[in-house]
Amino acid sequence: MKFNQKPQIKYQKGIVAIEFIFVLPIVILVILLSFDLSRYFQQQGQLDRLSYSLATMISHRQQYYLDSITKKVKPLDQQQVGELAQIARNQLNDDGIAINVHSLVRNVEPGSQSRFSDGSAQCQWKSSSTINQNLPVITPENLFKEPTIFVVELCQPLIGFSLFSQFSGAGDFTKLYARSLTVHR
Amino acid sequence: MSIQKQRGSIVIETAIILPLFLFLVFSGIELARGLIVRASLNHVLAEAAREIKLSPIKSGGYQAKIKAVMNRNDASLLDANLVKVVKEEFFDSPTELAMKSGYADRTGLVAPMALYRVEYDFSTLSPWLKTLNFDTEILVKYEV
């Protein structure tokens, strides 16, 4: 069998370049998307670690928040939460960080709850009462063994164009969120 | 005539495109490698932080603790000799931490917290990157 190669070769002029032009945008897009995602993973990891550190700090409150006169541990207040927010902002070099701390005191009748926030970003997972309702019920014999529960939420706004939000369909992908729950030590 | 004119055209086009293609491929490999290194490093630092907060280690002990954790666990692609603790600062309360007024040593602190800055530099396979530098800060609340 004899093939006529002439016309085929003629039309192959520049074929590699043309195919590469089609493939190049996709390859670049995949690489940029990977960089974008890796950045989010890194930021999310930092935020998770930080929320855990802040929760640990607030759970050791008998070491940090003692009333000098009564020698009793002060309840959670706005000043303490403001300090935690400042620590988070210093750590991540981002003034847009918002914090939300829930304090659930269940060993009193009736149980009390409070919430303090600092920062402008909307950063609330659930209301304090909903979190409280979702926790296991305390039996009367365990009532006085139940420690105060603290939930620390951190939000970091995402600034700039996000390839991930464009392609994942996550239109509300505007912030990163981390949450840690701890008990009063 | 046209065959003679086109002779070697694919070779020339490949020669033009190949460097760009290799650049993209190696960048992808470096990205993947960097992600693995960062994930391993984060894991090792968190593990070391959990250990150090339960030990009465004095100032300067965190680097040794990280290396010990690395030597015990076979962390992917990590070289224990490349980890450097470049800064350590101690605080006695959240207020001091928020004000960034720390101490160089934890001696005498009642409820010490430490802020460690860790750097990890490693050389890459790609000649255009040469080295990658990861630095991260970790906050430890001592329990002992």
Summarize the structure.
Chain A is of the alpha+beta class. In chain A, 45% of the residues lie in helices and 18% in strands.
Overview of the structural elements:
The complex is a heterodimer of chains A (185) and B (144). Chain A contains 6 helices and 4 strands, in the order H-H-H-H-E-E-H-E-H-E. Chain A has one domain (29-183). The longest helix of chain A has 45 residues, at 15-59. Chain A has 185 residues and is α+β, with helices and mostly antiparallel strands. Chain B has 144 residues and is α+β, with helices and mostly antiparallel strands. Chain B has one domain. Chain B has a 3-stranded antiparallel sheet. In chain B, strand 2 and strand 3 (131-141) form a beta hairpin. The N and C termini of chain B lie far apart (86 Å). In chain B, 22% of the residues are buried.
User: Helix coverage percent of residues of chain B?
Assistant: 40-55%
Number of beta strands of chain B = 3
> Whole-number average pLDDT of chain B?
82
Specify the helix fraction band of chain A: 40-55%
- Into how many domains do the coordinates of chain A divide? 1
Reported for the largest beta sheet of chain A, the result is:
4 strands, antiparallel
- The sequence of SSEs of chain A as H and E is HHHHEEHEHE
| Unreliably modeled segments of chain B | none
Shape of chain A: elongated
> Overall mean pLDDT score of chain A?
81
Oligomer: heterodimer
Instruction: Classify the secondary structure makeup of chain A into a structural class.
Output: alpha+beta
Total of DSSP H or I helical runs spanning 4+ residues of chain A: 6
